[in-house]
Amino acid sequence: MTELETLYTKIITCESCGLCKTRTHAVPGEGAENAEIMFVGEGPGFHEDQQGRPFVGAAGKFLEELLGSINLTRSDVYICNVVKCRPPGNRDPMPEEVDACRPYLLRQIELIDPTLIVTLGRFSLSWFFPRDSIGKVRGSLRQMGGRHYYHVYHPAAALHNGNLRQVILDDFAKIPLTLEKIREGQPVAAAAPASVEQGRLF
Fold first, then answer.
1. Nearest to 139 by CA among 168, 181, 177
2. Taking a C-beta distance cutoff of 8 angstroms, is the pair 173, 70 a contact?
3. Is residue 164 part of a domain?
4. Residue 115: pLDDT band by 50, 70, 90 thresholds?
5. Is 46 helix (H, G, I), strand (E, B) or coil?
6. Which domain holds residue 123?
7. What is the mean pLDDT of residues 63-85?
8. Is 7 left (phi over 0), alpha (psi -120 to 50) or beta?
9. Domain CATH for 42
10. Which of 39, 88, 160, 191 sits most deeply, having the most CB atoms within 10 A of its CB?
């Protein structure tokens, strides 16, 4: 069993917050263990909770379309969420639920060690950069703590606001060049330090 699989077992059996009582399945994450790009969303929805896989509903279909637009598939990248269990009724995750899952995401980042972390939506953005607004930083590449971050609206946003569909497509279109910029060691804007407590690593 790999270290990532061991982590999945911890997530699937986790009882660190109340979401364990209402979930059908925890949703650890999936994708290439050596992925260059890690996509971090908010949390599982109805279909993800049923299947135990991230981004398999309508937003997931759009994410697959977005990946295809830059010649990638799900198996080329790593996909996970800030919280690993579905909040009832798809409500926003509570701070204590986000905190309960914090060590899991920290460990996933450590194990995957991606070249680029793409935050999907405001909850993912605020996990890394608590003071920032997605509307202001979307489509931008920043560096913090030795890692590179690129910010995009959540694919679900396009399902609620059709005007955002092209915005998201345009932001995704920049990802290949963004990766190239990182690989070549070109200067990247440094973000202000985030007030994210590191928590305990497994």
1. 168
2. yes
3. yes
4. very high
5. helix
6. 3-15+28-183
7. 98
8. alpha
9. 3.40.470.10
10. 39
Amino acid at 178: T
pLDDT in tens, 40-62: 999 999 999 999 999 999 999 99
Contact 123, 42 (CB under 8 A): yes
Neighbouring residues of 184: CB distance < 8 A, sequence distance ≥ 6: none
Q: Which amino acid is at 86?
A: R
What are the angstrom distances between the C-alpha of 26 and each of 56, 170, 183? 14, 32, 34
CA distance 61 to 27: 17
Both structure tokens of 18: 């109340």
Q: How many domains, in total, are found in the chain?
A: 1
**Residue appearing with tokens 């450590």:** 110
Question: Amino acid identity of 143?
Answer: Q
